[in-house]
Design goal:
The protein has 6 helices and 15 strands. By secondary structure, the chain is an alpha/beta fold. Strands 1, 4, 5, 6, 7, 8, 10 and 12 form an 8-stranded mixed beta sheet that branches. A 3-stranded parallel beta sheet has the order 9-11-13. Helix 1 runs antiparallel to helix 2 and helix 2 packs across helix 3. It is globular and about 65 Å long.
Length: 209
Amino acid sequence: MSKLHIIDHPMVQHKLTKIRDVNTGAKDFRDLLREISLLMGYEITRDLPMCEVEIETPMQKMRAYEISGKKIAIVPILRAGLGMVDGLLNLVPVAKVGHIGLYRDHETHKPVFYYCKLPEDIEQRLVIVTDPMLATGGSSSDAIRLLKEKGCTLIRLMCLVAAPEGLNRIRTDHPDVDIYTAALDDKLNPDAYILPGLGDAGDRIFGTK
């Protein structure tokens, strides 16, 4: 079954409280989301393989460690997932970025696919899918299914806030995909928004609410 990683670092939780606040404007929301994504990135990349190399400091030669093995791709689910990309790129600037376009039909609450552009070697990379809100899990599940169809075998889902319904959907559809989030909230309301949540992340990122 998918492992759930709730990142409860004090700085993450502090910034999450600020980002939930209805009085937080679009600029501050974007800044906070970028900062949280950077901090969460430390945890989602914690187990990257390392190799030993020889370098020379200003004082002497030494053996040290650097990252080796799997390259990284960041794949945001449009549009809200874009808000998490810059923070991860600050941490891993050599990562490649793909895009998957899905939106939620407000009547059926089901995802609709409209765009996909991925790195040519996506199947060789650790893929971090970003979407701030894991609500019903429909969009994330469909995005992960698409990535698997493209040959991806190592996928991680990174979200800001998750609902139990979305968590269960990913665990059912993709038990091999681990989930990283800053909070597991209570439930969904009848309109499939997370409670207590933070509203529509896309609207709050881009100021379209």
